[in-house]
Design brief:
single chain, alpha/beta, Rubrerythrin, domain 2, FAD/NAD(P)-binding domain, five-stranded parallel β-sheet, 31 strands, globular, binds flavin-adenine dinucleotide
Length: 497
């Protein structure tokens, strides 16, 4: 009998499901029996693959020398501990007719690029390589998963079979270790992988702040489904939890944990929340709203170290006070995963540098997502990664799409309070001014103008105007004439709507 993990697609044969999914650690309740299981998500060797290709062998990830065991350092090049290479060469089961595309990264930029490539090129082979041990999922929904608003199965972007139906091979649990550009070849933890066109969509990882005593258990970042499951395993009603970082992700995590009944304190170095998205007035309204939901705050103070011997017992702040905690979530920003591209000699500045076509300094390598830097900007937001993934995928397949930038915007929903923020949020530069709508808290609405042009906004409570405002910011709509005509903020807002 076959069982399929609803979370990641792992197939198990036996009379009962396994106690734990070896891929994503899901429990037996996440397995369902299947009569005719779809193709396994991991790359399957072709039936006609040469015998050598399926022989289990350990090789050095860099020089490919065959090694004795998985832990030894290569005696040949000594540059890296050996990495598992099973099998030694990739054997994509898609037809090799046409171009060979490889997309590295199973996040939104990567899976969107793969989808666009398939739409543009029905013949090429596509391998989507991801170091995560599951199929692509909605990373931005992890906080809703933590809060119990959706279950794990709903996180996944496509149902089983969708990928294989479109001949997009998922190489899950596979890490790209090196790029040999002159040979058009990747060295991965599962062997060599040739490409004609490559999309680098390796995204970002959580930044772990340099706190003392970080090695204690139960202090975790939140970036992957694996992190979310670990956090959930510790989050029980009454668990004292501290979220380090009062940005969007930190607050969403805090709210999710509060919904699970945890006692939450958010610790933030700035004196007000969401300092990139809100001004002090709207941040104060937002904070009061969250406090009413049971979330406590320690603002304007930086954590210095974690307290505890084996497991965390608290967070010590710079003023030596300690907040008790059995769970600490570290939410202090992200850093792009670009080491592998940098080592390959591609131009990397803050991120992997791309032009308007999402092309890197190598004409056969495109990039998209949190790791890609376009015109000096690293976006770090889902919709920008999605858009970049479309352009990178189109162009990798020979198209002529253009990425013309993206206004920084954030949407956040905390129960009954929606928040939208875009572009400039404060009139603190020459030529800027503000129009604040007269609404009663917790609602708040403000436009920020630069030389009479709408350059940003904050909406709290009622965000129904967010689409129009986004369009106005993108179109650089001017309301200078209305201001000169003496129109009020309410009239100008109404005109935009
Ligand atoms: C919990 C959470 C909530 C969020 N909420 C929001 C939100 O509400 N709104 C919003 O706009 N944004 C949100 N974000 C940010 C948003 O999710 C990211 O901007 C987006 O996921 C970036 O997508 P990406 O494809 O560039 O990279 P990622 O999603 O980071 O994916 C990168 C992929 O590359 C893989 N990878 C990395 N290195 C290698 C390698 N060497 N070999 C193989 N694979 C590799 C990784 O395993 C991963 O699968 C949130 C993020 C988190 C973590």
């Amino acid at each position: 009998m076959k069982w399929v993990c609803k979370i990641c697609g792992y197939e198990h044969e036996g009379d009962a499901p396994p106690d734990e999914c070896p891929l994503c650690a899901a429990g037996p309740e996440e397995f369902e029996p299947v009569d005719d299981a779809p193709a396994a998500a991991a790359p399957a060797p072709r039936a006609d693959a040469p015998a050598e290709a399926v022989r289990a062998v350990l090789r050095c990830a860099l020089c490919e020398r065959e090694l004795g065991d998985a832990t030894c350092v290569c005696p040949n090049c000594a540059s890296r501990a050996a990495s598992l290479s099973l099998p030694p060469s990739f054997t994509p089961h898609t037809s090799a007719k046409g171009r060979r595309y490889v997309v590295v990264g199973g996040g939104v930029a990567g899976f969107t690029a793969a989808e666009r490539i398939r739409a543009a090129d029905p013949d090429g082979s596509i391998v989507l390589v991801t170091s995560e041990r599951c199929a692509p999922y909605y990373r931005l929904s992890l906080t809703r998963y933590i809060g119990g608003e959706i279950d794990a199965a709903e996180l996944f972007v496509h149902p089983q079979g969708w990928w294989s139906d479109r001949r997009i091979e998922l190489a899950i649990g596979t890490e790209v270790l090196d790029v040999r550009r002159s040979e058009h070849e990747l060295i991965t933890s599962a062997g060599k992988l040739p490409y004609d066109r490559l999309v680098a969509a390796t995204g970002a990882r959580s930044f772990v702040p340099p706190l003392g005593n970080l090695a204690v258990r139960n202090a975790l970042p939140l970036r992957t489904i694996h992190d979310a499951r670990e956090i959930l395993s510790l989050a029980r009603p009454g668990t004292r939890a501290v979220v380090v970082g009062g940005g969007v992700l930190g607050l969403e995590t805090a709210f999710g944990l509060a919904r699970r009944g945890c006692e939450i304190t958010v610790c933030e170095g700035s004196t007000h929340l969401l300092s990139r998205q809100l001004d002090p007035a709207s941040a104060a309204i937002f904070q009061r709203h969250l406090e009413q939901k049971g979330i406590g705050f320690a603002l304007g103070t930086l954590p210095a170290s974690l307290v505890g011997d084996e497991a965390v017992r608290g967070v010590k702040l710079a003023d030596e006070s300690v907040i008790d905690a059995e769970l600490v979530v570290l939410s202090a920003g992200v850093r792009p995963n670009n080491l592998v591209w940098q080592r390959a000699g591609l131009t990397v500045s803050k991120g992997l540098v791309v032009d308007d076509a999402m092309r890197t300094s190598d004409p056969d390598i495109f990039a998209a997502g949190d790791g890609a830097e376009h015109k000096g900007v690293l976006y770090g937001i889902w919709p920008a990664s999605l858009e970049m993934g479309k352009v990178a995928g189109d162009n990798a397949a020979g198209g002529a799409s253009v990425f013309s930038g993206f206004p920084m915007s954030y949407g956040l929903k905390v129960v009954d309070l929606d928040l939208f923020s875009i572009g400039l949020t404060r009139a603190n530069e020459p030529g800027t001014s503000e129009l604040v709508l007269r609404v009663s808290p917790p609602a708040y609405a403000k436009l920020v103008l630069r030389d009479g042009v709408i350059a940003g906004a904050i909406l709290l409570g009622d965000t129904s105007m967010s689409g129009r405002i986004r369009e106005a910011v993108l179109a650089r709509r001017s309301v200078g004439a209305m201001i000169e005509a003496g129109k009020s903020a309410d009239e100008i807002f109404a005109a935009i709507a």
